[in-house]
């Protein structure tokens, strides 16, 4: 199937979220921009249903803090609710 002819035939499991770490923030921004444009362009008669809630967003980047300790270990604090989201940590 050609890219332009593909249609959404499955429903998303959960809203998508990205958490790019500091070392990957530039790539995370590019992925976010691509996802925003791609999901705006895709057509589906089901986009307005409850199953697609959160499918189309202005940004998929989740507000999170990911500090590092002097030993190289890190921790993460997510600043918003992500219950049910599909997260990708970059």
What is the straight-line distance between the termini?
30 Å
Number of domains: 1
Task: Please state the oligomeric state of the protein chains shown.
Answer: single chain
Q: Largest sheet, if any? A: 2 strands, parallel
Please tally the helical runs, counting DSSP H or I stretches of 4 or more residues. Answer: 1
- Count all strands and give the number: 4
How are the SSEs ordered, and which strands pair?
Blueprint: E1 16-19, H1 25-41, E2 64-65, E3 77-78, E4 86-89
Parallel strand pairs: 1-4
Antiparallel strand pairs: 2-3
What brief labels describe this structure?
single chain, 1 helix, 90 residues, two-stranded parallel ribbon, two-stranded antiparallel ribbon, alpha+beta
Structure write-up:
It is a single chain. By secondary structure, this protein is of the alpha+beta class. The chain has one domain (3-89). It is built from one helix and four strands. The chain has one helix at residues 25-41; strands at 16-19, 64-65, 77-78, 86-89. The strands form two sheets. The protein has a two-stranded parallel sheet with strand order 1-4. A two-stranded antiparallel ribbon has the order 2-3. The two termini are 30 Å apart. The model has no long low-confidence stretch (mean pLDDT 82).
Can you summarize this structure?
This protein has one helix and four strands; from the N terminus they run βαβββ. By secondary structure, the protein is α+β, with helices and mostly antiparallel strands. The mean pLDDT is 82.
């Amino acid at each position: 199937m050609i890219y332009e002819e593909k249609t959404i035939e499955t429903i998303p499991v959960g809203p998508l979220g990205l958490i790019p770490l500091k070392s990957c923030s530039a790539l995370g921004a590019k992925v976010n921009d691509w996802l925003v444009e791609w999901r705006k362009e895709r057509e589906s008669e089901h986009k307005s249903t409850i199953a697609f809630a959160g499918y189309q967003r202005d940004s998929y980047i989740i507000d999170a803090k990911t500090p590092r300790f002097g030993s190289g270990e890190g921790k993460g604090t997510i600043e918003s609710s992500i219950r049910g989201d599909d997260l990708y940590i970059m």
